[in-house]
Amino acid sequence: MEVVNALGRRKAAVARIFVSEGEGKITINKRDLEVYFPSSILQYIVKQPLQKLGVAEKYDIKVNLDGGGYKGQAEALRLAIARALVKINPEDKPALKAEGFMTRDAREVERKKAGQPKARKHFQFSKR
Questions:
Q1: Left (φ > 0), alpha (ψ -120 to 50) or beta: where does 121 sit?
Q2: For residue range 31-61, what is the model confidence (pLDDT) as tens digits?
Q3: What architecture is domain 4-99?
C-alpha cells in the first residue's frame, strides 16, 4: 500500500495526515499521540474511526497539526483519519458516516462587532 494523505479541519485547527502500513503508531508534529494529547478523552476521540473499523493496529499515521485548541485539533484529526480510511477502502464510508465521523463541523467563531463588547453582547441600554 502506498501512502494515503487526507485533510481534516475543525474551528481554526487543520490536520494533514499521511497513512501507511504499520503497527498502529500515531505521530503528531514529531511527537507521540500520548505525549501530544495527555488526556485520555482526546486520545479516544482521535482513535474513534480506527476502533470503529477495527484497524487500530494496521496503519501508521503521521500528522501535521496546526492552529486551534486541543479539542478542535483532536476533532480535526478524527475527520482526517476517517477521510483517509475511506480513501483506502470506500466500502467503510457508510459505517463511518453513521457515526458522524465524515461530517465537517462547520461552526466557526463569530466575529466581534464594532461598538459592542462581544459578537452578540451589547452594552446596557440607558434611556436617560
A1: beta
A2: 999 999 999 999 999 999 999 999 988 999 9
A3: 2-Layer Sandwich (3.30)
